[in-house]
Amino acid sequence: DGEIAGLLKVSGGLIEKSPAVKVIDGQRFAIMHEPYLLESVAKSGDFDYVLYGHTHEVDTRVINGCQIVN
Known about the structure:
Elements: H1 2-10, E1 20-24, E2 27-31, H2 38-43, E3 49-51, E4 60-63, E5 66-69
Parallel strand pairs: 2-3, 3-5
Antiparallel strand pairs: 1-2, 4-5
């Protein structure tokens, strides 16, 4: 939407489209705000962790060896 496009533009590349993908000490992270496609991302086998927000509810579970944390 327009808000996301504007934020991407004014951030100078500091804000990334969701999910942001990071590798830290060999661990693969997918980071997203809203939990859309959360389970699909976890089930993909591409990530060790999926971190998300939006719901403000505690969620710690493992799907297909992927640790999910809200």
